[in-house]
Each structure stands twice: as structure tokens, then as C-alpha cells.
């Protein structure tokens, strides 16, 4: 009787292994160039976060959360940091936070321009969309295999995996936010003489900011999840605490790492989620910009009319 395994005539696993090996050997300078900014920014953020004294850091987070979100979220953030320090994983938490902040910088630098490009060009979006589908449906552990082969093991390769996994939501939400801007606003800007650059920076982006920040919230949460997973390839932080606890069957150690991860994730989620709340301020600023364009257009018309009258 014919077995299903007998139908396996394409050695896809070998093809992929050979392809990755070829890329690792022949494109090594490219991956070293990618690794260099990641390593430097990660080292800088890690140094800053570890050098700030605990009380000052708590106060800074409290003030930042109060300014960006609310007093309730600020109090929750301060209490969460105190609890993390009290259970003895402050250093590991700062390492994880440096991973997250570095990932946010690179995801924003990659995701927002790519999302804008996709929103302004349907052909680009038709190419990028299936790539994002693959990236977001691929299990997180699968990211680790090519990263290890191309970048090695350690915290920096782990950061590369975090950025790769966390960038797609921001690209999608940026594209969606710009496409969702009311057509009447765009047509009004075009009618008053706004060029493509003005249309993007003064009308589309301000109105799309809440949606883009919603994507940033999803990026932060995805980066938080990946920062735990990449402990399997040597990345330091709270994920390594959990992994060590599991490896030693030390339930207490694993639980301590898990508690710190949950508190840190909730703190970041609440702050970024509050940022994404839509307000009327951006809409008012866009309307003010259109009004100024209208006044400028009318003033130019008045000058032209006056000049014509003087000529006659």
C-alpha cells in the first residue's frame, strides 16, 4: 500500500538549508552591517537603563506615564517597578526593557516609512502584504533558526529576531491609518493647493496618528513576547530567568520571571494604549491648516485682482 511519505519527492528542507548556508557565507558583510547599529544602540540603551538609580527611574516613569496617559496608569507603573525590584529581578527587567526600547526604535524607523509607501502605492502593498502575512503567521520559534545561522547567538541576534517579528503590525496599521483618512479631507487639501508632501505631513499623518499608535501598541506587545522567546538563543533578560527556572525545574524562579514580565508588559501596554486613543485635537489642527491654505489662496487672489485693477 502506498504510504504518504513515499510521495515526498521534493527535498525542501535540504534546499532551504543550502540556501541559508549560501547566504550566510556570501552575504556576511551585509549581516555585519545590519548587526552594527543594532548592537550599538542596544548597548547604549542597556547602559543608560542600568546606570539610572532605581528611585530616579521610578520617578521618571511615573512622570512620563502621567504625562502620556493618566494618573492611574502612572501609579500602576510605579508600583509595578517597585514590585519588580522587590522580587529581585530589577537588573534582568532593565535588560528586557532595553531590548524593547531598541526594538521600538528600529520598528518605527522601518515600519512607518514602509507603511506610508504601501498606502501611497497599491502595487507595493500587493507585494508587501503577503510578506507580512507570512511573517505574522510564522511561529515565533521559527524565527530563531535563520537568525542563529546568520547572526549567531546572544542578545544582539535576539534583538534582530525581536525587530523582525514586531515590525509587521506597525506597517499594517500605518498603511491602514493613512488609507482611512476621510477622502473629503484629502480632496479639500488638494483643492486648496497642497502638494503631496503637504498632504502627507499636514493632513494624512496627523489624522492617522491614533491608528499608527495602535499599531505601535501591538508592536510593543509582540516585542515583549519575542524578548522572552529569544532567551533560547542566549538573549539575556527576564526570558532567561524563566528559561533557567524551567531548565532547573525551579518553579519559584520561573514564576518570579513570569510575574516581572506580566507587570512590565501591562505597564507598557497601558501607556501605549492610552496614546492610541483618538482625540479631536489632530482633526482641529488639520482643519486649521486647511483654513490657512484657504486664506492664503484668497489673499493671493486679492493681490492678483488688485494688480489687475491697477493695470487697467
Explain what the structure shows:
This protein is mainly alpha-helical. The protein has helices spanning 12-26, 28-51, 54-68, 71-86, 90-120, 122-137, 144-151, 155-179, 183-191, 196-229, 238-247, 251-275, 281-311. Mean pLDDT is 83; it is low at 297-312.
Question: How much β-strand is present in the residues?
Answer: under 5%
Low-pLDDT sequence parts: 297-312
- Rg over CA atoms, rounded to whole Å, is 25 Å
Give the topology string: H per helix, E per strand.
Answer: HHHHHHHHHHHHH
Q: Indicate the structural class.
A: mainly alpha
Per DSSP E runs of 2 or more residues, the count of β-strands stands at 0
- From the N-terminal CA to the C-terminal CA, the straight-line distance is 100 Å
Q: Which sheet architecture does the biggest sheet show?
A: none
Q: Shape, please?
A: globular
Helicity level, as a percent range? over 70%
Arithmetic mean pLDDT = 83
Count of runs of 4 or more consecutive helical residues:
13
Summarize the structure in short.
The protein is mostly helical and 312 residues long. The chain is 83% helix and 0% strand.
